[in-house]
Amino acid sequence: MSCSLTEQTCIPCSGEVPPASAAEIAELKPQIPAWEIISVDGVDQLQRIYDFSNFQTALEFTNKVGALAETAQHHPALLTEWGKVTVTWWTHALHGLHRNDFIMAAQTDDAAQGLTVSAPANPYG
Fold it and tell me: What single DSSP character describes residue 10?
């Protein structure tokens, strides 16, 4: 591994490139330890829930991730709620994971620096 995931750039990806192999996933996953690999309808995805102190900060983070996604032309599923944001990365064209997803997960972690908190108490229930 020549440089960290946060320093890497997504490559254009079509359905013609292979998804990440089990060996590649085993190499990349330890670099984003807070992320889970989930399966939705048989499609492997990376998912993480970030906690924030309020809705405004959660929305600020959502917008930061959206800007990263636009720059990379690789887009996640984002669920913004009071005090938390769920981010899910996968490569739609491959119906699974690619190195790009791990790069974007690492960059998402960087975007959260200084914004996240321990699980907040939601005053709205």
Answer: P
